[in-house]
Amino acid sequence: MSERERTDEVAEQVAKPGGGAVLTGVKKWERRVFQATWTRDGQRFEAVNYSVRVAHGRQRKAVNLGTPDRREAARRASLFVATLKVRGWDEAHATLGTEPARIRAERESPTVGQYIEAAARVAIGVSAKTFRDYAANFRWLASRIGGIGHEGKTHEAWRLEVDRIKLGLLEPRSIEAAVVSYIQERGASPEARRTAASNLKQCRCIAGRKIRRLLPPELGGRNFFEGVILPEAPRPPKYVATFDHGALVTAARAELRPGDPQAWLAFILLLCGGLRRGEADGLVWANVDTAKGELRVMGTKTPDAAGTVALAPDVAAELARAKAEARGFFVLEGREVPPGGNRRTYRAEATFARLTKWLRAHGVTGRCVLHVLRKESGSVVNSEHGIHQAAAHLRHANIRITSAHYADHRGARPVVSLAIPAAAEGGK
Fold it and tell me: What is the fold of 245-337+347-406?
């Protein structure tokens, strides 16, 4: 307080009725504390406990001092303001022993990094790659809530800053606001809504009951997403082939089989086996039984996706020929991938890159043309054997996923004509 301000305050205090003496310390705050009053339905009420109005750092608040005794309230107000000037609002509230629940929750709450680290130790049945996706989306959400951007920072610096965010900040209102702002920044497009819904779904997985029940109470005691309401994401468009299946296979046999045998093998596994890229990358020759015409898929996206895939005779013959010439343990040759990293890296990354380039040159479109081959595989089985067989071929948990994303309805469909059925005519 400047000399001028101090003089004005003293003069004002002296001028008050009954004044004349300058009040300091607890005596000063006895004049400033008050019992809040309010009116409801025409009736006036008065709070039992005393409060004090305090301004600091562009904030002005009425602080409940938690006591009905005026002198004790003045003592608490004096200590509160002295702490506030030096250490800020949170430390000042702590002096009262009754700090607001929100501030206390944020203060005592573990951090995002602590939660992810603990969840990684108990995430049973979740692959390392899938958990990395969960953690990345959880950090994405926390960074939007905490207002932490990537600008001018390395990814590692950004991640360390996000990991220090308190879990107490993750509540339904802040989560909804963060996701809605993300959608609005991208023009509220269907793709933005689908991306936001997908990211939030993975966040729910890392904070789901299966993981939280294995965590200590201070980490797993609260479901961050309980009560979260978001705009419904539009359904993604059904798969529609942009190429001729027969022409693509003919071109691959003529160009890839003699010119790039590894790309040809990858093409067979993705299109004829319906494998995901990671499943093809990790497939070993020991799990390819060309005599029975089947291959065993292990190390899949989820435990439910493991299983056996039947192979057509000509596909089994192609794999048998390649198996006889194989020099390594894996079906697709590649380099050793170091553990860890921020993104999934494949052993056969170079082979997948060559195949991707070849597919785009032959009319296969989409964000991930390698996954388009898996969708085409399911569509072919669906058209010939039905949706249930297509779901089994792709190893989906239920046919809803197959129908919504993978099955391009082609060929003849059952129809009802206006012609009178022969059985009906005979019964006349």
Answer: hpI Integrase; Chain A (1.10.443)
